[in-house]
Amino acid sequence: MVEDALEDLESEGEEISCRKGCNHCCHLLVEVSWEEATELANWVLNLPHSRRERFLGRIRKNAAEARELFLSDKKAHRFLKPADGEEEIPDHIFDRYFYGKRRPCPFLELGACAAYEVRPTPCRLHMVTTDPELCSAESEEQEYETHQRLEELQEQATPVIQAAEKTHLWGQLGIMVEAAYQALIENNLTTKADNNNSEVACDNGDQKTRVA
User: Fold this and answer.
1) What's the rounded Cα separation, in Å, for the pair 43 and 9?
2) Is 173 within 8 Å of 105 (Cβ atoms)?
3) In terms of Cα–Cα distance, which of 72, 61, 84, 81 is closest to 168?
4) Does 203 fall in a domain?
5) Could you report the per-residue pLDDT of 12-71, keeping only the tens digit for each?
6) pTM higher than 0.85 for the full model?
């Protein structure tokens, strides 16, 4: 779907201006589904120890800063943890997140997305054809342009995103990935314990067989 939209743009002589190193959008409040958060958490889990700990620190900081913002507004309290249902994060919270204190995405490293191959849907669909500097929170114009074909692409993805929000957990990226990572750890510990119990049971069974 994304590839088709990009081909249509190229055929019209248009070009996506987003480039590696352009990361203004990496300071936006990004919402992700539980599935996307789990994919990102699994990416972190498989990193070498020192790098994994570095990203975990960033994720926890990002989640804490998001909670601090949500706590400041009663309308956003329900988003302090992964949410479900149709209620949306208020638009003014998105504005305060972006135009207030700079909160970089925890996966932003050296000006680029370290987890690019598993980036969530909002990041895949956020593309512009105007000067990247217009996307900056400090831009006086603050008027970047999204090509009509890209807007159509976002509209096509909206029903899928809304369906996920209605039937699954979703929320702010840092909060979601933090929770998904903890769930993965707990699941791994449970699986390991179950395997150990199975091995003990097998050993006991073998011993009884030998005695008999």
Assistant:
1) 32
2) yes
3) 84
4) no
5) 666 777 788 889 999 999 999 999 999 999 999 999 999 999 999 999 999 999 999 999
6) no
What lies within 8 Å, CB to CB, of 46 at 6+ separation is: none
Residue 198 lies in a domain: no
What's phi and psi for 109, nearest 5 deg? Answer: -140, 125
Task: Answer whether 115's CB lies under 8 Å from 123's CB.
Answer: no
Q: How far apart are CA 205 and CA 208, in angstroms?
A: 5
For residue 65, give its domain range. Answer: 2-182
Q: Is 139 exposed, middle or buried (0-12, 13-18, 19+ CB in 10 A)?
A: middle
- Residue 127 belongs to a domain: yes
Q: What is the rounded CA–CA span in Å between residue 209 and residue 161?
A: 56
Residue 102, sorted as left (phi over 0), alpha (psi -120 to 50) or beta, turns out to be beta
Whole-angstrom distance, CA of residue 40 vs CA of residue 81:
17
Beta-bridge mates of residue 83: 170
**Is 129 within a domain?**
yes
Instruction: Report pLDDT digits (tens) over 170-180.
Output: 899 999 999 99
Per the document, the length of the chain is: 212
Query: Looking at the 3D structure of the chain, how many domains does it have?
Result: 1
CB contact at 8 A, 126 and 116 = no
